[in-house]
Design brief:
alpha/beta, elongated, 11 strands, SIR2/SIRT2 'Small Domain'
């Protein structure tokens, strides 16, 4: 059986594909304060602004292309049973070739009822005011906003507990509960952290630090794990 390799990815892996998040600009996301566009309160106050914001993000993601880091993680599937837990709402892991991705914070190409979160639909164009789900409620982005619970966090924690190798890439480990997943990794498991700025978790046992941007860091990870990159 292949070893289980679990990846936790964040904004840094998509940054090299040209996708920015609030992480880049001290709480601003493409010029917006996150609390004006990414909270339930923002949705209640100004749903039009929230829809406009995510419609633009959807166009940005559609125009972006997976980079060498996304493609490198897909190569790991040749040798490992790879599970990717991503904080990102884009689909670049999928388009990069990875086949098993859990989106902790939702997906930009999905929408759901604002009342019933189980009513989820694909969306590649815009969501507009008056667009309704099957229950008659307004459709909203299928995104986990700040101040909302993260429904998939228990499933993610279970994956992390089973890891034979754990990789953190492109995340500051500052947004909870995702940042707490590192605490579920067994002490004996090798842990690789790839980022331009390594988070302050260096006291963890069996920690291997790769202080590089995602594309360069994943290339080094493949080398350390004995995988020839394309």
């Amino acid at each position: 059986m292949k070893q289980k390799l679990v990846v936790l990815s964040g904004a840094g892996i998509s940054a090299e594909s040209g996708l920015k998040t609030f992480r880049d600009t001290d709480g601003l996301w493409e010029g917006y304060n996150v609390y004006d566009v990414a909270t339930p309160g923002a949705w209640r106050r100004n749903p039009q602004m929230v829809l406009d914001f995510y419609n633009e993000r959807r166009r940005n993601v559609a125009d972006a292309q997976p980079n060498a880091a996304h493609r490198g993680l897909a190569q790991l599937e040749k040798n490992f049973d790879v599970k990717i837990i991503t904080q990102n709402i884009d689909d670049l892991h999928e388009r990069g070739g990875s086949t098993d991705i859990l989106h902790l914070h939702g997906e930009i190409f999905k929408m759901r009822s604002e009342e019933d979160e189980t009513l989820v639909y694909p969306i590649h164009g815009d969501i507009n005011p008056g667009d309704k789900a099957d229950d008659g409620a307004q459709l909203r982005p299928h995104i986990v906003w700040f101040e909302e619970p993260v429904p998939l966090i228990a499933e993610a924690a279970n994956l992390v507990r089973q890891a034979d190798i754990f990789v953190v890439i492109g995340t500051s480990l500052a947004v909870y509960p995702a940042a707490g997943l590192l605490d579920f990794v067994p002490d004996e498991v090798p842990k690789y952290i790839i980022d331009k700025t390594i988070p302050s978790v260096t006291r963890k046992p069996n920690l291997h630090v790769i202080e590089k941007k995602a594309t360069e860091g994943v290339a080094e990870l493949l080398e350390r794990l004995g995988i020839n990159s394309l």
